């Protein structure tokens, strides 16, 4: 029996299992993560993904490594550095590893307890921001979302999807438009699957349909997650989010970002300072690996493949954090950083 469990993570005393998100929704496959190397492969391939989940799983991997290699602080640091470099954009990974590193001197048992505390904390943060996000949703509204921000991506109910789930629990009837989320289809594969699981009516759309959907007056609100929120309120999220924010602004559709305080990076002044992960060209030229085996572009077509984009604060109606809902004025005052 795992002593901690979420929708996509099972934590045992001396090992970790994750739900392979590259195989969803076709198969629910749990995979053992036995080493930092296993974790790196899983995170790079997006088998483990979503800002909070990346950080939490790294904390458990580091704690387990320390338990297997007691008294080797220099090695733990080396492992932590390697985990940190695996995906650069989601600051939750840095947050969790900072917390773990601050605990190195206390030894393996303390590290394991700390990782468990981070997991429990995220579960609680999810609930708090989901309640606040749900307060913004009214009966009959149509909400557009991007990527996957649900239970799969966190220890709890999720961020933006968490708000939809809590609203549903309160009896608020919603209709959700799910952007499929090119190039890796986290919306089409994972959010669609979670909507069905939550019994929330939804329609899947290709990302390029969002503008005409809003022009047709079919979207009341946009809600997305974040991988890093800067001191000035700019934020990084799955590529395509910026385009949605621009279109929402043009059509006067309120645009909300939902995230825990662990996604806020006070040290990052503006979006220009966020490191953006570049991914393999094959993801744009076709679908490979667990996603299939088809190449639709010319074999060597030059590709630009940033995994995230930055949405400027000016396009955001509200930042929904566990600590509160912040408007533009509150962001300028830096209230989200306290
Ligand atoms: O590349 P991914 O799938 O890890 O990107 C995930 C996102 O962009 C999410 O919106 C973000 O991590 C917030 S999830 C709670």
UniProtKB/TrEMBL annotation:
Membrane-crossing segments per the record: none
Biological process, per Gene Ontology: L-methionine salvage from methylthioadenosine
Record: active site: 227
Residues at the site labelled Transition state stabilizer: 147
UniProt key word Repressor: no
Catalytic activity: 5-(methylsulfanyl)-alpha-D-ribose 1-phosphate = 5-(methylsulfanyl)-D-ribulose 1-phosphate; 5-deoxy-alpha-D-ribose 1-phosphate = 5-deoxy-D-ribulose 1-phosphate
Enzyme class: isomerase
Binding site for substrate: 49-51, 87, 186, 237-238
UniProt-listed InterPro entries: IF-2B-related, IF-M1Pi, IF_2B-like_C, Initiation_fac_2B_a/b/d, M1Pi_N, NagB/RpiA_transferase-like
Pathway: Amino-acid biosynthesis; L-methionine biosynthesis via salvage pathway; L-methionine from S-methyl-5-thio-alpha-D-ribose 1-phosphate: step 1/6
UniProt keywords, alphabetically: Amino-acid biosynthesis, Isomerase, Methionine biosynthesis
GO molecular function: S-methyl-5-thioribose-1-phosphate isomerase activity
Organism domain of life: Bacteria
EC number: 5.3.1.23
Assigned protein family: Belongs to the EIF-2B alpha/beta/delta subunits family. MtnA subfamily.
Free-text function comment from the UniProt entry: Catalyzes the interconversion of methylthioribose-1-phosphate (MTR-1-P) into methylthioribulose-1-phosphate (MTRu-1-P). Also catalyzes the interconversion of 5-deoxyribose 1-phosphate and 5-deoxyribulose 1-phosphate. Part of a bifunctional DHAP-shunt salvage pathway for SAM by-products.
Name of the molecule in the record: Methylthioribose-1-phosphate isomerase
Originating species: Halomonas citrativorans
Gene that this polypeptide is encoded by: mtnA
């Amino acid at each position: 029996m795992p002593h901690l469990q979420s929708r996509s993570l099972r934590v045992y005393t001396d090992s970790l299992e994750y739900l392979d998100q590259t195989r969803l929704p076709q198969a629910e496959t749990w995979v053992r993560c036995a080493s930092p190397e296993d974790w790196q492969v899983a995170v790079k391939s997006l088998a483990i993904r979503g800002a909070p989940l990346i950080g939490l799983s790294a904390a458990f991997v580091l704690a387990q490594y320390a338990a297997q290699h007691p008294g080797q602080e220099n090695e733990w640091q080396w492992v932590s550095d390697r985990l940190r470099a695996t995906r650069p954009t989601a600051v939750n990974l840095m947050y969790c590893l900072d917390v773990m590193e601050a605990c190195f001197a206390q030894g393996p048992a303390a590290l394991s307890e700390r990782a468990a505390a981070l997991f429990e904390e995220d579960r609680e943060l999810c609930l708090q921001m989901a309640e606040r996000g749900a307060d913004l949703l009214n009966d009959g509204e149509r909400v557009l979302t991007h990527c996957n921000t649900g239970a799969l991506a966190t220890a709890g109910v999720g961020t933006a999807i968490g708000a939809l789930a809590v609203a549903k629990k309160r009896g608020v009837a919603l209709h959700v438009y799910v952007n499929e989320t090119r190039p890796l289809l986290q919306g089409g594969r994972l959010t669609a699957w979670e909507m069905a699981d939550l019994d929330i009516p939804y329609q899947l759309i290709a990302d390029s349909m969002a503008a005409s959907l809003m022009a047709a007056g079919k979207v009341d609100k946009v809600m997305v997650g974040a991988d890093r929120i800067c001191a000035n309120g700019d934020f990084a999220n799955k590529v395509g989010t910026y385009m949605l924010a621009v279109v929402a602004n043009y059509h006067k559709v309120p645009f909300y970002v939902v995230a825990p305080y662990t996604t806020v990076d006070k040290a990052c002044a503006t979006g220009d300072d966020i490191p953006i992960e570049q991914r393999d060209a094959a993801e744009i030229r076709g679908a490979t690996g667990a996603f299939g085996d088809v190449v639709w572009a010319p074999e060597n077509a030059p590709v630009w493949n940033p995994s995230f984009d930055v949405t400027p604060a000016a396009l955001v109606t509200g930042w929904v954090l566990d600590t509160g809902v912040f408007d533009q004025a509150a962001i300028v005052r830096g209230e989200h950083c306290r």
